[in-house]
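Reply to dn_fold:

You asked what the input looked like. This is it:
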Amino acid sequence: MDDEVRTTAPGRARQSEIFRAGASGVRPAVPMGWRALVEAAERTMSQDAWAYVAGAAGRESTAEANYDAFDAWRLVPRMLRDVGERDLSIELFGRRHPTPLLTAAIGVLELVDPDADLAIARAAGSLGITSIVSSQASQPMETIAADGAGPWWFQLYWSSEDALVESFVHRAEAAGAEAIVVTLDTAMLGWRPRDLDRAFLPFIRGMGIAQYTSDPVFRDLVKTRMARPSDGPRPRVTPSAVRTLLEMSRRHPGRFWENLRSGEPRAAVETFLDVFSRPTLTWDDLPFLRERTRLPIVLKGIQHPDDARKAVDAGVDAVLVSTHGGRQVDGAVGSLDALPDVVQAVDGRIPVLLDSGVRGGADVVRALALGATAVGVGRAWVYGLAINGEDGARQVLRDIVAETDLVLGLSGHRTVAELGPDDVARL
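and this is what came back:
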């Protein structure tokens, strides 16, 4: 683990490192300010990648609401307290985490960097930060785990095929995952104008489906599909269609020419599109998962206090307040605005986590003060990844840890546990 995270003053250590390097003419590779970070990332990404990563549902008002929610809660610093030494660590699922950060699950990161899934796992792991590996990763979970990553959880999209759900969970356990994060808010894809304007869905090009094409249950589903006579319309042959077929064949496991000849990559994509989501999922389905794993189960996407109470009653181990970064429901409540009522509904019986809209350390501290046990960071490190690869993602995470430490101390606290609702005020 990085020495900077082990120190009791990571904020001051990071500042000193930057200023000392500056004396030799070296500046950080990734911008510190949010706006500069976003602008630099946009310049490095393809138009398709930028639309997919930065876009949100509808008028993108929920994405804005996530940011506005943080801005509406203000910290109320306390003075003349001994904050010379600070401790950012938290306890969660039997592990002592050196910081309250998690890296949120983000799919199809090959759009940003071909090594992205491995890079973020390594970057987070080097800082002791738990990463959440996506069902839509571009590398199988076993490859990510074997690459020397730190602690990780597996994010599960609940498929319409129960056998595939069971297979994913068993694979995650065998590969060393420490929790299963069930994403509830993506039973269908939200209306995302940026992607629709470009008519671009990465999965159709074989991107982001490595967890599926590496799965024995999914491969059997593909074989069954290939054995049936095709009853759907064949795509019109155009230069773009040919390029898509070639991209599928290159990404699919196996030899390119055999993939091209067999048609298996296209069958795999079509199978994925058929089984990816389950709009009929209800609370009655949760026992199926509980019976098949000993790992902690986190329900991601909780925003209503009644759903939080149902989660407790269902015996899950934590809830994650999330709007999916604003990518699913336009016009929804901001994630931080939903947090206090969820925390009150849970009443300390299980941990409450949060993601969506987190830009820096001050946001992390506000979420912790309002009752979050841990805080997921998403787009920020993706932008760092786009700018400077693994080192860029690591820098963004280090900088957020550093700012969290400084804001914690400057607001008059030595530990995360000292934060509470009295330390923030609503505008």
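The chain has two domains: 3-189+278-426, 203-275.
Hope that clears it up.
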